[in-house]
User: Which sequence fits this backbone?
């Protein structure tokens, strides 16, 4: 669950992520990576973690934060065109790519990884993002540095409002997903 509050021209965020009996809490300024942005707490199986998260959210709402709704996200598609050898490398590392992208997005409070799709002509990674402009350069740099990808494009659409994508990179170029 994520909450956001505009302050001094910036969006401050809190993000509560549950994984089994562990609660991860991320907080900071959206779009900025902070060194100490995450805390991790483990709870016993007898502790009502869901109720605790609801309490934390209620406290933040009293402080003026609002809960982010699914409709607030933009769908961002990272589409990679590659040769067979590059394709194999990316396919082999897809779980670490998912972890890297998801971790990065949580750290900057800007969304989450949704899915990947491997087609015969391109590989797509789908992200749900609150502010797409914060991720364009870091995602491009990540794929170039980690995997040597030189041919990629990124597009966005409002989540649940169709698949027509407007280009983020190259900027302004329109393209559509095949499905």
Assistant:
């Amino acid at each position: 669950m994520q909450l956001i509050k505009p302050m001094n021209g910036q969006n401050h965020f809190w993000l509560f992520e549950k994984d089994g009996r562990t609660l991860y809490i991320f907080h900071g300024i959206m779009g900025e990576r902070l060194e100490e942005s995450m805390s991790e707490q483990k709870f016993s199986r007898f502790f009502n973690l869901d109720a605790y998260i609801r309490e934390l959210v209620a406290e933040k709402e009293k402080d003026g934060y609002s809960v982010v709704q699914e409709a607030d996200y933009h769908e961002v598609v990272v589409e990679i065109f590659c040769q067979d050898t590059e394709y194999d490398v990316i396919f082999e590392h897809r779980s670490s790519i998912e972890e890297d992208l998801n971790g990065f997005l949580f750290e900057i409070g800007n969304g989450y990884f949704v899915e990947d799709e491997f087609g015969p002509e391109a590989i797509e990674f789908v992200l749900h993002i609150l502010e797409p402009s914060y991720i364009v350069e870091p995602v491009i740099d990540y794929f170039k540095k980690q995997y040597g990808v030189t041919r990629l494009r990124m597009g966005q659409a409002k989540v649940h409002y169709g698949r027509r994508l407007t280009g983020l990179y190259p900027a302004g170029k329109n393209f559509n997903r095949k499905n």
Remarks:
- Helices lie at 49-62, 84-92, 94-107, 136-147.
- The chain has a mean pLDDT of 89.
- Residues 49-62 form the longest helix (14 residues).
